[in-house]
Amino acid sequence: MVIGFTLTPWIGFGRPTLVRKEPLENTQNGARRTRSGILDSKVFLAEKEAHRPDLGKGIPPETENTTQHSCEGGDSIVEVIDTCPESFKTCREWIAFTDLHVRRSTIQTCLQVLRYVHEQALRREAGVVFLGDFWHSRGDLPVEPLNLILEEFSRWTQPMIMISGNHDQVSIDGELNALEPIALAAGEDRVMVFSKPTLFLDALWLPFRRNDAELLKALGSTHSANAKAIFCHIDVYGADMNNGHVSVLGTKPNRLFHPDTVVYSGHFHKPQTVPGTGIRYLGSPYQISLSEAGQSKALVVLDSQWTVKQEIPIDFGPRHFRLKSMDHLEKTIDSLRANDLLALELPSTGRDSVESIVRKVVSKGAKLQLKRKPKPTSKARIENAESLSLERVFTMYAEIKGCSKEIVSSGLGIIRDYLNDDSDVIPAESRRSSTLELVTVNFQGFGSFEKLATYSAKNRGVVLVVGENSSSTGLSSNAAGKTTMMVAPLWCLTGFTDIRPDGTRATGLSTEMLNDNSESGFVQVEGLLDGRQLRVTRSLRRKGRRIESSLEVILDGKDLTKQTRDDTQAVLESLLGASLLSRTFYFGQNLATRSALELTDKALKDEISRIVPLERWRELRAICNKMKKDARLEFERKLAVLHHVQAAIPSQKTLLEDARTSFEEEQARYDEASARISVSRGEIAAERSTILNLLEEAEDHGRRVEELKSSVSDIEEKLREHEQQVARAKDTLEAAKNELRGVQDLVKAESLAHAFPVIFI
Q1: Comparing C-alpha atoms, which of 508, 502, 498, 529 is closest to residue 446?
Q2: ∠ CA(715), CA(716), CA(721), 5° rounding?
Q3: Is residue 65's pLDDT more than 70?
């Protein structure tokens, strides 16, 4: 029964060459050939176990009977845990969620979800169940979100059970996964990670498995019969993958579960119950992509018997909106919040004015994707641009864009300076067309193919590659080797197995490509390169713990192999542009939904530059970018000076006002002083007149004084004469007094003699 397929178009490099495939030839492994007719377009990779030793030890054999839930040895695949920390046994409620998809762009939303889940669990004294796809990218985990997640879980106190999803698993058997660091950060007494089918707390826990045989064995065990519920991460046929897309490649539910079985699963992001079954997809806790637009999310509360008790609505992170018209957009704007993403498809014709709407959306902090339906046909804006000069191409482009004369003149000047400066010109690479037609692909010890396998790649057209399970179980054929067979020629010619959407390459490390049971392996491609016989062989050899690789190139019987593998790869690159094969010859699963229209401007130009000589335009862009950078630096310098001057203006204004005030005060004092001086001048003039009058009077007085002096001299002379007369008079008076005293003395004496007083008058 057909249970999976990979549709791979093979296109010749340089011109379209449809290649029709023959069935896989592997007589050593006992693989049967298909007959001619319709089956001739199929290559069967999934054979019975007795005829498929080439699948390698990493892939479990598929069961022979999927209608029975029990199979021999089934109990050994289920691990039974009877003892566990008491906190797990005492939980009466469990909060279940799934598909967190932690990555750099979603880390803040994921942290919000985790904190809310823990808050709800703590409030309810409940445990937590997680059903896979905790991380978005398997393998190497980004350091920043990893550290934030580990720090968050180091603070968790509630018990948690986790199973791994396909995004969490690293090894093909699923037992090596990226959930173990979480258990280490939180502590094994709080977080239990089940990496294999496990019976715990009366529930069967089934982590993701690429091959359903192991799941069937677990479901067929006697232990699973006692499970009250099943927790898993699976792809079920008929489930709604996203809005409008139903799974058609998943496992049919009646092959795995009884209709009455209670099943909770992760994997698909839309919350749902698969019709006619007991399978319930919990859905992602936030809208991870635009395909989940309009979906409501919730946490599911389970009781200790694993039945649904309640749903807790949850609304974190950006919401996504698919809009069909401007009216729909306008009605949505008021309900927007920061970081919401809106996708609006506009008709290919019309002049819808969206500027005002875009401003409203941006003001809300949301993001708007505008896409016009492509027109049926379009012409190149500049015909035969590759044959025109740089100046002519630029001039025509400027005319289309409506650039001003100043811009055109400036651009032409830059181009002429560039062309005149020989030291700066890098000649455009020669783009030579090559036609590669594959004839035969041989490989051994490569991936899951241990023994020699070969298939024809000549004149096969479009081929549907499928896997067949002879047990007719309808199980998935993942890891059967379909992709390995398809990537073998790409790996042989380029050294890598695929190219991712972000442009990085999956290099196909030797340790991963060499079969586990093989000491050596190789892939050999034979074909025609521009009509010449080409044989390329890339080999791997185990040497101790190391894996050595080599590359051989034979063209028309001439050995072009160089001393080193890198030098030989350079020969291949020069012959057929090997780095372009992943864009012209092989389209892997990572590029299945990635078109040129989805690339950023830079990524699109990088892709175009691989086949179109854009080196000179890149050089000119670098020159313009440098000029723009220099101009920006000069502008920023002048702007800084302007800001400095503007910053100084207030203080200078203050100083100016202070100076003006001081000037006015000084002017007032000057005017006052001038007025006083004018008054003083009048007073001085009056005083001068007075002084002159006084001087005249003084002269008159001087004359009088002289006259008086003469008079005084006369008076003084007369006074001296009078003084002399007075002196003589005084002498005469004194003599008279003396005579009087003598007379008085005589009288006293006589009086005493006569005894009576004598009174002198």
Answers
A1: 508
A2: 95
A3: no
The most confident of 251-255, 295-299, 400-404, by mean pLDDT: 295-299
- Pairing mode, strands 2-8 and 127-130: unpaired
CATH superfamily membership of 2-42+431-591: P-loop containing nucleotide triphosphate hydrolases (3.40.50.300)
Quickly list DSSP for 571-601: HHHHHH-GGGHHHHT---GGGTT--GGGS-H
What CATH number does the domain located at 78-314 have?
Answer: 3.60.21.10
**Per-domain boundaries in the chain:** 2-42+431-591, 78-314, 320-348+356-372
Selection from 239, 241, 229 nearest residue 308 by Cα: 229
At 18 the pLDDT is 30
Nearest CA to 623 out of 427, 428, 417 is that of 417
Q: How far apart are CA 627 and CA 624, in angstroms?
A: 5
The pair of structure tokens assigned to 249 is: 């490649």
Whether 78-314 and 2-42+431-591 are alike in CATH topology: the answer is: no
Q: Work out the number of other CB atoms within 10 angstroms of the CB of residue 454.
A: 16
The vertex-343 CA angle with 602 and 339, nearest 5°, equals 80
pLDDT in tens, 604-614: 777 776 666 67
Report residue 533 as tokens: 């016989």
User: Residue 599 corresponds to which amino acid?
Assistant: L
Q: How far is CA 117 from CA 102, 110, 128, 156, 207, in A?
A: 15, 10, 8, 10, 21
